[in-house]
Amino acid sequence: MQNMFIGKGNLGSSPELKRLTGKNGDFVVATMRVMFARWGQNAEGAVEQVGGFWREVEIYGEKAEACAKHLRKGARVLVIGEEREFMAKDEDGNEVQVIKVSADDVALQLSRIESITFAPARSREEATA
């Protein structure tokens, strides 16, 4: 990997799954926008967000299908892959530089879940009443 990328961020939208046909047959790709925040300390020493950046993340194959099935907007994810830069044209026809991440792995980060509450099991009498 030439431009290795590792980052934790939040999904800006749910992943979009596309089925494509290429030279080597059919394949699937999931595309998602992820916000990667930058954190720092303020004058009082408290940690706060000091910036961030958006990246379009693509992942292929079975992992793409799993992302589309399990991830939703707002989910905290860990992305490992490679950054790729290329030139594209915007709506006005101007050349713009685009940076995407071609992911090898996208993992759901459960650190944002503060608590999970389970309902107590009900007895058979309560279930039939």
From TrEMBL:
Q: Does the keyword NADP apply?
A: no
| Cross-referenced CDD domains | SSB_OBF
User: What InterPro entries does the record tag this protein with?
Assistant: NA-bd_OB-fold (IPR012340), Primosome_PriB/ssb (IPR000424), ssDNA-bd (IPR011344)
Provide the GO MF annotations for this entry.
single-stranded DNA binding
Q: Quick check: keyword DNA-binding in the entry?
A: yes
Keywords linked to the UniProt accession: DNA-binding
What's any GO biological process attached to this entry? DNA replication
Name under which the protein is recorded? Single-stranded DNA-binding protein
